[in-house]
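Reopening closed ticket. The problem is back. First fold of the pair:
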Amino acid sequence: MKKAPPRWVACVLAAILCTAPRVAHALDKQGSAHGGALEGDDEGFGVSGALSSGVALYNPTFASRPDNSGRAFLRYAAHADVDVIGRRLSFPLDVNVFTDRTREGAGKAAPSELDLMGGVTSTWRVGATAVEIGSRFQHERPVDRGTFSQTFVDTRARLLYSVAELAPSLTDALGGGDISGWLTLGWFTINRTFLARPDNTGLAFLRYAANARVSFWQKRLSFAIDASMFTDRRSNAWLRPSELDLTPEIVVRAEPFEVHLAYERDMPVDRRGLVQHFVYLLAVWEFALFEPREPVEERSNIVSP
């Protein structure tokens, strides 16, 4: 009888298969540059992004501070992309705040954790896909009590895809929709404190991630799933996933607004340990303060006859 494959192999395959048939991630609290859009301006200055606010409808275990204390209740977040040379040179910025539902009275709405993120990205169209490369800085800290914080700098490459780009007939079949998303490979380049499992053990080394969204009805209704995995640099098998964060969600869109109903489950995959999960409702407002302008061609001084 053949020996069963290791558990981590099954988890990797499951994550990939789930993406075959989009702003909180595991929380990969950094929004994807430009919302993961395949199209975009390749030159010019622009500022765009999104503001979001959410509430945990059900939360038995998902913590509200980096040290795993409290229970997340409210979430406030802001994401911005500052394009200097269009998408070819962008600076993504993110702020994320949690509150603690275990606090008394109005304290439930007071911040318990603050996450700050910034970086640089460059996105290039490659045939029917696009490639985003860049580096991000992330710092998570408590703001009401405790001192434990997590900080890292990572380098990542992300492949953005749209099935409708390869098969235009899919758009009609889905009523103006698409199957789109991205695949990510990241390396925690500088990391002394960002941990590799939900129980705050290990030290994150690599990030494997996949996202897929099936949209219908002119992209007004979508079903999405996001899978993110970390590996542990302190483990002998540092390429093997130590944590899997899985987030399926339903998205209703009426531009420039979105409403997400999502379930997130963060779990260890190489050993038993703490599992954090919750159900949340998130409202998102997208904005564009400055949009890149088309370059103005220089007028010739020669007067045509």
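Second fold of the pair, where the issue appears:
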Amino acid sequence: MVWYNGGNTAYIEPVATVPERRGKGLGRAVVYEAVNRAKERGAKRAIVLSDQDFYKHLGMIESSKVGTWVKNSK
């Protein structure tokens, strides 16, 4: 799914495939379709909130790092 409401940036939901279907290009096709649809509507860039190598293999580059903080509730 792609989220785009105008402006320069579209947000693409991380893609998941079941293990039996991986390696067939399905995830790649979904991401490319989301990027193309966002571009057609005017987006200049697409962001996926994931650090998986899958997105690097599609030509995406890391734009920032997000820190995660957890508080123990002992």
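Update: turned out to be a display glitch only; the data is intact. Residues 2-57 form a domain with the Aminopeptidase fold (CATH 3.40.630.30). The first strand starts at residue 2 and ends at 3. Please close again.
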